[in-house]
Each structure stands twice: as structure tokens, then as C-alpha cells.
Amino acid sequence: MNSDPPEEANAFWAQKSAIEQRYQALLDRATPHTTERWAFTGVVLLIYFIRVLYAQGWYIVTYALGIYLLNLFLAFLQPKFDPSLEMDMAADAAEEGPTLPMRSDEEFRPFVRRLPEFKFWHSATRSIVIAFGCTLFRVFDIPVFWPILLIYFCILFTITMKRQIRHMVKYRYIPFNIGKRSYGKSSFK
Q1: What is the pLDDT of residues 84-109, one digit of tens each?
Q2: What is the CA radius of gyration of the chain?
Q3: CB neighbour class for 148 (10 Å; exposed up to 12, middle 13-18, buried from 19)
């Protein structure tokens, strides 16, 4: 008599699991296609902006999306292990006695990102889709004077990026391959 609800619950969890597996398979197939993934995200973002401009609303949602994307971008630019903390630890360790080499000219240390590129793309795309979903409901269309939000976002972006670039220059790390030495077959001729 009470056997129907557990069977329905099991069917729900089985369906949920099947959808999650299909979603993960889709992500696995998209992983090696970096350019196509980012092009898709750019198109989705463009559609989102067209929706916001056409509807003349949801500026708070767009501002929140911008702040979140800025946060993701900063995490993408930063190294997994903060060099300023490592230098402080190295100074403390020097007082204690000899240790393994810690300076960058003594050993090779690859740049490891705090937020890997794939997770950056996945989180950015998901957040844009969620923001687009929010534009379908009037409850998220809070009236606000949008030029102030835009100016504040630009100031926040400028200050944050300036601080990040200073940090990159001070601790001499480049999060991109631009300007780095390449050791290919042509360099050994």
C-alpha cells in the first residue's frame, strides 16, 4: 500500500543520475575544444546583453554577473600558491637553517592557476545562463539608475586589475604564454 512513494523516489534519482551522466559526457566531449567553448560563451554573453538592452532592465542582475565574472577572471590570473606568502615563509625558513632551494632561479616552477581554464569557462558559462534565466522573471528587475552601476563597475575593474598587474610584476609571474620562451625544434638549430 505504501510502496508507491519509494518507487517514485527511486525513479526520480535514477532520472537525475542519467541527466547528470549525459551532462558530464557533454562536458567531457567539449573539454579539448577551447576555442569553440569560448566562442559559445561569447555568443551566449552577446545574446544576454542583447536581451538586457532590448528589455531595458535587469541591470542589477547584469552588475552581479559582471562582479562574478571579474572574480572568476582574477582567480584565473592568480597563481595557486601565492608568491608573497612563499617569500615570507622562505625568509622564516632561512632563519631556521638550510632547506631545499626556493628561489625561482634555482629551480623550475611552472605557473599553476588558482582557477583552471576549464573551470573558469564552465563557471562563466553557467553564470551567464543563470543570469539569462533571471531576466525571464520580473521579480529580478529592480529599478536602478544604471549609469552609476556602470561607472562603479569600471572603477572597480580598473582598481582591481591595477593591483593584480602590480602583483604580477612584483613577483615576476606571467599567467599567459605570451612573451615566454619557447623550446621547440626550431630553437635547437
Answers
A1: 776 666 555 555 555 545 555 555 56
A2: 23
A3: exposed
**How many other C-beta atoms are found inside a 10 Å radius of the C-beta of residue 126?**
11
Q: How far apart are CA 145 and CA 170, in angstroms?
A: 38
DSSP 133-164: HHTT-GGG-----HHHHHHHHHHHHHHHHHHH
Closest CA to 56 of 163, 144, 181: 144
What are the φ and ψ backbone dihedral angles of 175, each rounded to 5 degrees?
A: -75, -5
Contacts of 118 (CB under 8 A, 6+ apart): 31
What's residue 81's pLDDT? 79
Q: What are the two backbone dihedrals, phi and then psi, of residue 183, each rounded to the nearest 5 degrees?
A: -110, 75
Q: Which three cell numbers stand for residue 171?
A: 613577483
H or E element, residue 47:
helix 34-55
Nearest to 149 by CA among 42, 71, 74, 61: 61
Backbone angles phi, psi at 109, to 5 degrees: -130, 105
